[in-house]
Description:
Elements: E1 3-11, H1 15-25, E2 29-36, E3 43-50, E4 53-60, H2 67-75, E5 78-86, H3 89-98, E6 103-110, E7 116-120, E8 130-134
Parallel strand pairs: 1-4, 5-8
Antiparallel strand pairs: 1-5, 2-3, 3-4, 6-7, 7-8
Pfam family, one: Glyoxalase_4
Keywords: Metal-binding
GO molecular function: metal ion binding; methylmalonyl-CoA epimerase activity
Amino acid sequence: MNRELDHIGIAVRDLEHAVYFYTQILDGKLLDQYRSEAKGVESEIAVIEVNDSRIELLLPTNNTTSPIARFIKQKGKGVHHIAYRVDNLTEAIQHLESQGIRTMKETLRTNKHGRRLIYLNPADTEGTIIEYCDYPVT
């Protein structure tokens, strides 16, 4: 099964400052900025490309229910998750389950760009939040 790094999600407290840092200091390019109120997301998201790498800056929009807000309260700002692109998300989930790795089924969704994604249970990943994702065939 092919896996490649897709992006790194970074929890931030000040999206404007973070976008400035990644675009002006690191010479990145702002590809998109949008707000997601989907349950379990509830964030403003800025997608930045630095060279050939993507970063998602994540600002919580609901300090009560956003998992990004909980993350910042517990661990502070910084790297929230690492996302791996797979060829077929459904097959990847089946493969993970056959290996005894649990996924967080309630996080399975399709984002505004058509990317299907799910998070792995951090209890099975040595505490790292890992996202698996795939993209629609165009």
